[in-house]
Predict the structure.
Amino acid sequence: MCVVVRWLAWRVWWGRVGQRCCALFGVVPPLAGEVRVAGQLLPARHPDQAVAAGLALVPEDRKTLGVFLEESVQWNVALTTLARDAKAGIFVNEQAGSALAADLGQQLRIKAASPDTLVGTLSGGNQQKVVLGKWLALAPKVLLLDEPTRGIDVGAKAEIYQLMERLTAEGMAVLFASSEMEEVLAMSDRVLVMHEGRLSGELSRPKRPRRALWHWPLASRPQIRACIDILVHDMKKNLGISLLLLFVCVVTSLVNPNFLIPYNAENLVNWVSLYAIIGLAVTFVIITGGIDLSIGSVVGLVGTVLGWLLVEKGWPVPVALVVTAALSASIGLVHGLLITKVKLQPFVVTLCGLLIYRGVARWLVHDGTLGFGTAYDGQRWFANGRIALPFFGDYRLPAPLIILAVIAGLAAVFLNKTVWGRHLFALGRNEEAARYSGIRTDRLVILSYVLCSTLAGIGGILFALDVNTVQPASQGNFYELYAIAAAVLGGCSLRGGEGSVIGVLIGTALIRVLLNAINILGIATQLEFVVLGMVILLGAIADEYLRRNRSRRQLKRATPTG
């Protein structure tokens, strides 16, 4: 394999030889020059282009850039092959990932209790093997190693030296950056000396065996027990909030039996369904580590535009719905571009959006009120219609619940079963590590905001049809807080990387039941925002407590081994 570097210039910190590897991989943009692999010009403006050309990078800082410590060995190893092994090019192939993790674990002798063991509980040497494994799964043409033996014990170093020897014997090109001169001279066929971006010298190693460094007996180490299974953790978290929801419902119904009458139950489920849609909307953004404060204003703007197009302009219903949906998606696109390309903070972008969209909605109808009248009762059925239930007496099924079920089902499949969903979680866990894994993080951020605004727009249409009038000054006010509270209460971490659809649905139900209980029990309605604020605060406290508790358990159970 031939790798040619011609006058490659880039900004580099003093002493950081590994920056050369980062420049080749597209992480650090070069100022000038070109790189060719097997005669083909390598653009390398982004790591995914380098991966497509057959390059792989093992970064120096494996904990921050190489692995996702709170995910399993299998999750990490299979991350780079998700798209390749995906079913129908979309859905995650868990069987292929499991087989890959087992095979590489055996080849690289990763000491872990099982493929489900969290990488954060492994020793430095085994974590480095996980980084190597996720790239070897792609069979790259060129392997870039940036300080691959730093921070690991002697036994793990020996295994990595052996692996380098085997890979080069099989025809893979290995570019090796190390600050240990003995290591460089012993392991390299050629040592290239660079000065001011140009090759200034070359040292050739005599043909001799490399046993001096790596031919040491490997010490046996006990296997590390898995500290916790992420799925079980999420189930316990959802179980706790479910029990709390059940407790509130039981207490409220005992104090006031009107809580369970059909009229109240139907209205409660109707409102839960509508608010859960915008709760799911913000979930996509929170999982990536972002935030969207403009959801309420988007709800108000979309409802106003829909009413304006239908009532004032007389547009056909299908055309008006398509235009409002396109408006919602374009808002998310603008948010994503401002965050990823202009590098503005999500808080600033969406806070400005909150003000702008509210102002546009008020200006569009001159701060007036739009009513749909009786001309659109067929469309209103989707927002407040009822479906009779056999064997349930007077109880009926609200139509928005069906819409929510469809959206929630699609969201669950997207987040848990598709390549893009897995990449979203990776982005939220560790954005830099995701970039170093060849994931197009900017595109994912844009996607998350488009999905968020689109779902918020759907919610805005349903809210407007439900009340049959639109008041732009108040429509959707504080809805972003309800959405964020539901997501946080349902298990979404404001740091990103965590969240589940079922948790958001239960969180929304709990908030709406609490607010309904305030009215049913005759408590002052002024306390509504007190309840909302306490829910968000308690959710944040619980998230911090669980994070610290999980970290303590990992440190307690982890046994550093080679």
The mean pLDDT is 83. The longest helix spans residues 528-557.
